[in-house]
From TrEMBL:
This is Uncharacterized protein. One of its GO terms (molecular function) is oxidoreductase activity. It comes from the Eukaryota. Gene3D superfamilies: NAD(P)-binding Rossmann-like Domain. SUPFAM superfamilies: NAD(P)-binding Rossmann-fold domains. It comes from Catenaria anguillulae PL171.
Length: 241
């Protein structure tokens, strides 16, 4: 059973919300009094059983599909409930272990499609809904990034080059989106959620999903134009590119 839509509440859409940080954010925003809309690459009963109680609607979204057919129908799913979207969290991501000297075109392309192209295309597709909210008081787009994307800090040099390059590209698109959408009342920024214990990290991390989700929500609430086009961490501090 999914959550009930309430027209008096703000709405958030979270991509990649069936597990990990995305699921944690769905729970967090549901508890904060938001209508939660979610996407998941797989939407079978077993895939969304943990997410369903918190989401008004769960839309299948496959960013690796060359046709992007599921992306094209995303606005219609949202429009069945509301013409506006106050918060978009582009959380869906993928990490494929690789190293210089053993890179493959397929793994690089997959990571760029999901991690870089995905947030930009989802944001572009939902811009009408975000603009409606932006003109009525403001909207926010949060691209979940990573400290590994920082060219300046360059943590773990030589490791995960495909992942870090795709996240660096995401950051560049965050800057472009922020400049383009500011006039519509839409604030766009990147956010490193900390080192979170999820399946992607091998369940290793300094923060639990619940801790990170709570911190992320606080940063999003407090975000203003000072962070537009920048990347901040889970404490709200601006990070180096």
């Amino acid at each position: 059973m999914t959550a009930v839509f309430r027209s008096n509440l703000p709405s958030v859409l979270i991509t990649g919300a069936n597990r990990g940080l995305g699921l944690g954010l769905a729970k967090e925003y549901s508890q904060k009094g938001y209508n939660v809309f979610a996407t998941s690459r797989k939407t079978g009963p077993a895939d969304i059983k943990d997410l369903a109680p918190y989401a008004v609607a769960i839309h299948p979204l496959d960013l690796l599909d060359p046709t992007l057919a599921t992306l094209a129908t995303l606005p219609a799913t949202l429009s069945r409930y509301t013409p506006s979207l106050q918060v978009l969290i582009n959380n869906a991501g993928t990490m494929i272990p690789d190293k210089v000297g053993a890179l493959s075109a397929d793994s690089l392309l997959a990571q760029f499609k999901v991690n870089a192209m995905g947030p930009a295309l989802v944001t572009q597709t939902l811009t009408p809904h975000l603009t409606t909210a932006g003109q009525a008081g403001g909207a926010k787009v949060v691209n979940i990034s990573a400290i590994l994307a920082s060219l300046t800090d360059n943590l773990m040099p030589g490791k995960l080059p495909g992942y870090r390059a795709s996240k660096t590209a995401q950051n560049a698109l965050t800057v472009a989106l922020a400049k383009e959408l500011a006039g519509k009342g839409i604030l766009v920024f990147g956010l490193h959620p900390g080192f979170v214990a999820t399946r992607m990290s091998g369940m290793k991390g300094e923060l639990s999903v619940e801790q990170s989700a709570g911190l992320v929500a606080k940063v999003v609430d407090a975000a203003n134009k000072e962070v537009a086009g920048k990347m901040v961490n889970q404490a709200g501090k601006v990070m180096n590119w």
